[in-house]
């Protein structure tokens, strides 16, 4: 029972965005370019 919780602790899965090749979580909008499933959902402005 002491080690039962260790199987729950894991890092989130990360994929690479097909549009901008930056890492993002699957089934989420890419925070770098704003694309989801091949279409732009969010407008992302360039950081200053």
Secondary-structure element series: EEEE
Arithmetic mean of pLDDT: 86
Rg for CA atoms: 16 Å
**How would you describe the shape?**
elongated
Strand order of the largest sheet: 1-2
| Biggest pleated-sheet summary | 2 strands, antiparallel
Model regions low in confidence, pLDDT < 50 over at least 5 residues: none
What is the overall number of helices? 0
Domain unit count: 1
> Helical content, roughly?
under 10%
Which structural class do you get from the secondary structure elements? Answer: mainly beta
Supply the key terms.
single chain, 48 residues, mainly beta, two-stranded antiparallel sheet, two-stranded antiparallel ribbon, 4 strands, 17% strand, elongated
Describe, in plain words, how this protein is organized in 3D:
The protein is mainly β and 48 residues long. The protein is 0% helix and 17% strand. The strands form 2 sheets. It has a two-stranded antiparallel sheet. A two-stranded antiparallel sheet has the order 3-4.
Short structural description:
Helix content is 0%, strand content 17%. It is mostly beta strands and 48 residues long.
Give the topology.
Elements (H helix, E strand, L loop, with lengths): L14 E2 L6 E2 L10 E2 L2 E2 L8
Antiparallel strand pairs: 1-2, 3-4
């Amino acid at each position: 029972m002491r080690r039962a919780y260790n199987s729950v602790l894991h890092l989130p899965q990360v994929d690479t965005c097909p549009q901008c090749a930056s890492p993002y979580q699957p089934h989420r909008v890419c925070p770098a370019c704003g694309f989801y499933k091949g279409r732009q959902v969010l407008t992302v402005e360039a950081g200053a």
